[in-house]
Specification:
Elements (H helix, E strand, L loop, with lengths): L9 H18 L6 H13 L8 H19 L25
Length: 98
């Protein structure tokens, strides 16, 4: 008998889909810069200390993550730099392009 599929809420599935989309976008970057993008994505997902019941914060983080993904997916963004675990500057993570 096959295992039962995991039941997930809509928010859980949205987070998983965003994470997968980030990893797909990383594959489109040059091999030399992928590790920096991977590090950035890991830090962004691990750093949020919201509870599973804080739906408003989760929805906000999903929206912000989608905007970041859209920005960093652009072909003009070749690399990412800066401190990824520093909250200074009004935004999470540093980003840049060369």
């Amino acid at each position: 008998m096959p295992p039962k599929p995991i039941r997930r809420s809509g928010l859980q599935q949205s987070v998983i889909n965003l994470y997968r989309d980030c990893w797909r976008a990383i594959r489109m970057k040059s091999p030399e810069t992928r590790t920096r993008f991977q590090s950035f994505v890991r830090v962004q997902f691990k750093r949020s200390d919201v509870t599973a019941k804080d739906h408003i914060a989760i929805e906000y983080l999903i929206r912000r993550g989608k905007k970041q993904l859209e920005t960093y997916s652009e072909k003009s963004i070749k690399d990412i730099s800066g401190s990824h675990d520093d909250d200074s500057g009004g935004g999470k993570g540093g980003g840049g392009h060369e």
